[in-house]
Write a structure and sequence with these properties.
By secondary structure, the chain is α+β, with helices and mostly antiparallel strands. Helices cover about 25% and strands about 35% of the residues. It has a seven-stranded mixed beta sheet, with no helix packed on it. Strands 8-9-10-15-12 form a five-stranded antiparallel beta sheet, with no helix packed on it. A five-stranded mixed beta sheet has the order 16-17-18-20-19, covered by helices on one side. A hairpin with a 2-residue loop joins strand 13 and strand 14.
Amino acid sequence: MSANATSIDADPYVPGHGDTAYGVDRYELDLTYKAAGNHLTGRAQLTVTLDSDTPTIALDLHALKVTRVDVKGATLSRWSHRSSRLTLRFGETVPAGTVLTLTIAYAGTPRTVPGPDGRAGWEELADGVIVAAQPHGAPSWFPCNDRSADKATYRISVTTDTAYTVVANGSLIERRKAGRATRWTYAMDEPMAPYLATVQIGRYETTEVAGAAVPVRLFHAARLRAVAGQAFADQARMIEVFSTLFGPYPFAEYAVVVTDDVLEIPLESQAVSTFGANHCTRSWDAQRLIAHELSHQWFGNAVTAAQWSDIWLHEGFACYAEWLWSEAAGIATAQEQAVRHHQKLATSAQDILVGAPGASDMFDDRVYKRGALTLHALRSEVGDVTFFAILRDWVTRHHGGVVTTAQFEALCDRAAGRRLAGLFDVWLRQPALPALPALPALP
């Protein structure tokens, strides 16, 4: 089967992205970035394994110009780069199981990638860069197999002016200065979907967060030192609470980047979350977002939905984590939060299926809140002991992997000792809002 035949159906929520003919095992990215002019030069080495017999494979790369392609493991006949697709044609049909090494040189001015839900990817700040790639923005800065089901390990090196700090996924394994530039190298050895890969570049200071079970660092502009410290004062406690409820924090460390710019929304990447200066407050609106993005390290990053139609497995879980933090912080109980949001949903249009919202509505707030209410209903049905055992088991079983709603339902059925299809049907697969159950009183 050819790449052209498989890529169209890789994920209908992000049409034109991804190729199911192969999977990437590892990305090694060596980038040079010049902030003046927003110019990126890159060399990407991908180790891939073919999943089907194919004469071609396709990679996703937007706007940037490819200058050279080399392949080891098969004979490259020719390549073409059109409409954000880099297609490699081999001299023969290459059998499934073949391991290839692809080396791609490219350069240009990176730009965000358009999609059904808006634009995403590499974005210039007033002085620096963020990469917010969910769900389709990874091709804005490196050639990839852009589908959430294709996880790989990463090594990311970025050389830029020494005045800037670079943050990327994973652990900083080398920082080497050469003249007026510094090369930063990060390693992410846990499997990661392409949309979760990130690079953050800015004039940042680093503040170590004390008391966390893993290293936690805040990267922020000097002028934000005090307010960032106050806003994220509960970060270590949040990790402790979520580790108790969901299982141990899933990565070696956690980085929080606070840009000097105002951002409409924050966004998580694997082991990194990015916030704007406007999120540096102690208000509940800011604190719930800090909890929300942290919880994605378990639900969305360690465990990732194989298809975007199952996005409630990310956003519903993260929204429910907000309510759990609200209870732990003494702000309001999860039941009180559920009642408030159920009342609000009752006044909204009830024309969305949480379990399959469609590409244009996958980030609709109703998916988030009703997804959280689904979990609240599950908790009411099975009780706290079983409910939190389900969440911990979910992360343990699927850490580093990809999942579906059907798998979650099957796990819940086993844990409860009975079929729960009726519960999931009314909350996920029917548009009408069900009545909200109350949590049973504690003995």
